[in-house]
Write a structure and sequence with these properties.
single chain, 386 residues, Growth Hormone, Chain: A, 2 domains, globular
């Protein structure tokens, strides 16, 4: 179901972006695509509070039903009226609100389904399915919106989420009960989450490290590859090839954990991110084949580290705070990624294109010093036999 849900998300993202470009200027289209991140960033911590108090399954069910309602409303509206900036903005904002409540609860579900020792294997399967679903959804989304328009895209996506709703309602059942946070005003619950972070150094280190991961690789992949291909005259097809290698590497990296699981999950995950930092640096220099190799390495280390560190996070964070801590890691992306993208572009304009790759990759390697110096992470094993 994770693959189907992520395929639906990818399909909708492609449909929204394509339609926005058709009906608005590039600047307004960018505003539409980014509109969902604003309410998500504002509401995410409240979603974390609810995730720590309520039944995660019910929260996931409720907000997937709302997603279906939004998609059906968009499809009906577009069938009677041509797509407009207003309807696209409203749809993007509504999806952002649903994400803000859904994601923190969904982030706690793994801990309720499997034992802590089994989290890496579960994560490997889930993330491999997620990446394959995202790639498939993006490909299908492009075809559907190009040939049948936004109404068809919204209808197909509504169908995928209806299947997810049915799965959650009928088959999804938690096996392990988590400690629940006490009921209190939402703002006090958020403040208590920050207090918990300040007095638990292991959790704090994990949250800081996980919050900053995409800030290095996101701009390098999302903007840097296009800049390099443009400067070198490789063409758009080269960017597509690099992205494909990244996706294949990520899927292989994730599934490898199920076959070759390290004894110390956190240590292996953080060392993989050191290698990823070196890969980011390598993207900025050399011919196309070295960039392709670096993209594959970045994907493989991202998939590998993501499985191991997500498992470590779920297994070690106090379950009464798991939703809030997960919301904080997601908040780093929503709030800081636009700044990271702008900074990468500004550095490339002011210097040479290789400079931001070197600085961002070097920053990632330097950031990993913090957890790798922590004895808890160096020795931690989720497998009780070790």
């Amino acid at each position: 179901m994770k693959a189907l849900s992520d395929a639906g998300d990818a399909l909708w993202t492609i449909a929204l972006a394509w339609t926005a470009v058709q009906v608005a200027s590039p600047a307004v289209a960018g505003l539409i695509v980014a509109a969902g991140t604003v309410p998500r960033a504002v509401i995410l911590l409240f979603g974390g509070v609810i995730a720590d108090r309520a039944d995660a399954r019910r929260i996931m069910l409720a907000f997937n039903v709302l997603r279906v309602g939004v998609l059906v409303a968009v499809a009906v509206w577009v069938l009677t009226t041509p797509p407009s900036v207003a309807i696209l903005l409203l749809a993007a904002i509504a999806f952002g609100v649903c994400d803000a409540f859904y994601e923190p609860s969904a982030g706690t579900i793994a801990r309720q389904l499997v034992r802590a020792a089994d989290l890496p294997a579960y994560g490997a399967a889930a993330q491999t399915a997620s990446r394959l679903g995202t790639m498939g959804g993006a490909a299908i989304g492009g075809f559907v919106v190009a040939h049948a328009g936004l109404a068809a895209s919204a209808s197909v996506n509504a169908l995928t989420f209806t299947v997810v709703v049915a799965f959650i309602a009928i088959w999804l059942r938690s096996r392990f009960r988590l400690a629940r946070a006490e009921k209190e005003p939402a703002l006090r619950g958020i403040a208590r989450g920050f207090t918990h972070l300040s007095v638990n150094p292991t959790t704090r280190t994990l949250v800081i490290a996980l919050s900053g991961l995409n800030l290095a690789v996101g701009p390098a992949i999302g903007l840097g590859l296009a800049l390099r291909a443009h400067d070198e005259g490789w063409g758009a097809q080269a960017v597509g090839l690099f992205e494909a290698l990244l996706g294949v590497g990520a899927a292989l990296g994730a599934v490898s954990v199920a076959k070759w699981r390290p004894r110390h999950e956190a240590r292996a995950g953080f060392w993989a991110l050191v290698v990823q930092g070196a890969g980011i640096v390598a993207l900025g220099f050399g011919p196309a084949w070295t960039v392709a190799a670096a993209a594959f390495v970045i994907g493989a280390t991202a998939g590998y580290a993501s499985v191991l560190l997500s498992a470590t996070f779920s297994a070690t964070v106090d379950t009464a705070y798991l939703g809030r801590m997960g919301a904080l890691t997601r908040l780093g992306d929503d709030c800081l990624m636009p700044l990271a993208m702008a900074g990468f572009g500004a550095l490339a304009s002011a210097t040479t294109v290789g400079v931001p790759f070197a600085l961002f990759g070097g920053a990632m390697m330097a950031l990993m010093i913090l957890p790798l110096r922590n004895r808890t992470f160096r020795t931690l094993s989720l497998n009780p036999r070790h």
